[in-house]
Amino acid sequence: MQPLEHASTADLLCKIAGTPAAELLMKHYEDLTDLSKASLDELQHVKGIGQSKAAAIKSAFLLAQRLAREAHPESPLMDTPERVADLLREPNRAYVVENFQVVFLNTRRRMIGVQNIAQGTLDTILIHAREVFAAAIAKRSSAIILVHNHPSGDPTPSEADIKVTRDLIRAGQLLKIEVLDHIIMGRRTDERPKDYVSLRELGYFYS
To answer: Which residues, other chains included, contact 182 with Cβ-Cβ below 8 Å and sequence gap of 6+?
Structure first.
């Protein structure tokens, strides 16, 4: 019997859903990222996937997300875009609409917590400074990092992304809570080796 750690994706799905259903899942969904976004109801539309198998598949993805979180220390240092992207990659991979998150930091740039502030549509999200900074004040944050996803997979910032970033920087200056960066999560491609962009690295934090 082949060790599970060497099994293919299709073989692992077979262990959960059975061979016929696993083959249909592989045909229906482009990759594991696409499959992870499927709801319980959507999974049950695949022939051979009932409520229990759909729940098992969703549970596997949720366990993977929790394992990724356990890989980080209790209060991780969030001092580079790479570390922020590593922390939030798995949760953002499963989102099918835009979700705006804030990473709250103490004076030593260690994470106090993360909160999903707002949810939007496929390409739009409405953010109010009061929601962002009310949460930051409640957590006694000295700095924050903004994060949101682009479900299209392309993390290139839009004009709206740039505007909201600059608006929040100005609001943070008034409240003495520094906005350190805005990370946009996307997906890697052959032409784009990183699955995120940092608006600070792109120069939008300087004017």
So the answer is: 145, 146, 147, 148, 157, 161, 165, 168, 198, 199, 200, 204
